[in-house]
Write a sequence for this structure.
């Protein structure tokens, strides 16, 4: 008969059926769940912070930089057209405006490119603008020189320059691509983090449920009403769940405020300036070609007036209301002069139309174009304030997402160890 070999005591099945062993199992399982909850909470926190950073560093600045680029192009084209229509080499002020605007544009283009991150479609659009800008400057200069020499090809070069700016797939069209992509990105930023938050809530809910079951189990085994460390661990889990939820709700409220009170107005201002620029271009083409049919229609003006009314309605600060009111007054002044230009052109007074366009008309349009900057600045400050508020909500959340579950895990281990020690 073969003698049985005695197992070491630490391998005995009975060892794992003892109360201390069961308590250690409970503490290990709960600690593991809390570590998982910490991981999910960290993912949610990172998603929140990343979305706010994206809005702060990219979405808002890109839209504003893009609009400044459009403003420079509009200013350059208006000045170039004025010099061309004057037909003289003595319009130094307009020539200086053109040169300054063209010299600003490359840096503004670089600012936009830096801010958009890894968006291939936007980068391709900016590459087209970058190649079109020097070609436009070359054509504009050549058109002015040829015009002074009485060369009829000057008009052809000027029209090609217009096409590079506002024609199909021109600079304005390409900046619109960047603007629309940026707006779509903002919508994505607003919805970012929801899935990660749900995952964190599920992990925390499971941890909370197991903690409550553990306390019930301990009460039955040890006849103790409360295990203080486990109660504190429970509060840590509940506190983190509330903190994450408040951060999500607060971030959403701040970003929606940034959108409704500032971003939408910035986008509307961008559209308004582009429409005004296209209006000015049509006016210049009508004068150059002596073709009244090309002159901007009343419908075009109505669209611009409608955008101005919308911008004034959405203004929610005294500063913004004042800036938009001035912008509207500037446009009304320009449009009034433009109506005079149209009347002169209809009466076959090309010379009178040219004179009005390059004096009153150009001054009025430049005044409008410059005032756009005031509206942008007012909305930019509102935008930055709302985004800063969202960012402040996340200041300690990254640390809390890790610290609170880890503290709960340590409290759980300590709480169970107190009970285990009673068996020795």
């Amino acid at each position: 008969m073969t003698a049985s070999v005695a197992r070491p005591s630490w391998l005995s099945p009975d060892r794992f059926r003892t109360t201390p062993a069961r308590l250690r199992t409970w503490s290990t399982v709960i600690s593991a769940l809390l570590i998982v909850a910490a991981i999910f909470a960290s993912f949610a926190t990172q998603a929140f912070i990343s979305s706010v950073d994206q809005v702060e560093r990219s979405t808002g600045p890109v839209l504003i930089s893009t609009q400044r680029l459009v403003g420079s192009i509009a200013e350059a084209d208006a000045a170039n057209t004025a010099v061309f229509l004057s037909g003289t080499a003595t319009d130094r002020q307009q020539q200086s405006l053109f040169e300054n605007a063209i010299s600003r544009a490359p840096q503004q283009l670089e600012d936009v490119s830096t801010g958009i991150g890894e968006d291939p479609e936007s980068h391709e659009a900016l590459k087209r603008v970058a190649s079109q800008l020097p070609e436009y400057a070359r054509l504009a200069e050549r058109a002015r020189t040829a015009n002074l020499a009485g060369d009829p090809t000057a008009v052809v070069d000027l029209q090609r320059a217009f096409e590079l700016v506002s024609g199909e797939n021109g600079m304005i069209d390409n900046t619109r691509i960047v603007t629309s992509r940026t707006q779509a990105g903002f919508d994505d930023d607003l919805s970012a983090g929801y899935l990660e938050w749900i995952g964190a809530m599920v992990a925390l809910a499971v941890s909370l449920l197991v903690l409550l079951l553990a306390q019930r189990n301990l009460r039955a085994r040890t006849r103790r009403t409360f295990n203080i460390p486990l109660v504190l661990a429970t509060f840590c889990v509940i506190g983190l769940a509330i903190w994450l939820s408040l951060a999500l709700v607060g971030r959403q409220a701040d970003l929606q405020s940034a959108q409704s009170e500032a971003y939408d107005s910035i986008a509307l201002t961008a559209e308004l300036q582009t429409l005004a620029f296209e209006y000015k271009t049509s006016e210049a083409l009508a004068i150059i070609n002596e073709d009244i049919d090309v002159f901007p229609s009343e419908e075009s003006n109505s669209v611009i007036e409608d955008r101005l009314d919308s911008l004034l309605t959405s203004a929610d600060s005294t500063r913004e209301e004042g800036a938009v009111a001035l912008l509207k007054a500037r446009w009304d002044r320009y449009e009034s002069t433009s109506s005079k230009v149209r009347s002169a052109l209809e009466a076959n007074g090309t010379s009178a139309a040219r004179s009005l366009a390059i004096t009153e008309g150009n001054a009025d349009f430049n005044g409008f174009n410059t005032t756009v900057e005031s509206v942008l600045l007012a909305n930019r400050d509102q935008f930055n304030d709302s985004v800063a508020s969202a960012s402040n909500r996340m200041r300690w959340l990254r640390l809390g997402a890790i610290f609170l579950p880890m503290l709960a895990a340590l409290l759980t281990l300590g709480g169970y160890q107190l009970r285990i020690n009673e068996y020795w």
Remarks:
- The mean pLDDT is 85.
- The chain is about 85% helix and 0% strand.
- The radius of gyration is 34 Å.
- Residues 23-421 form one domain.
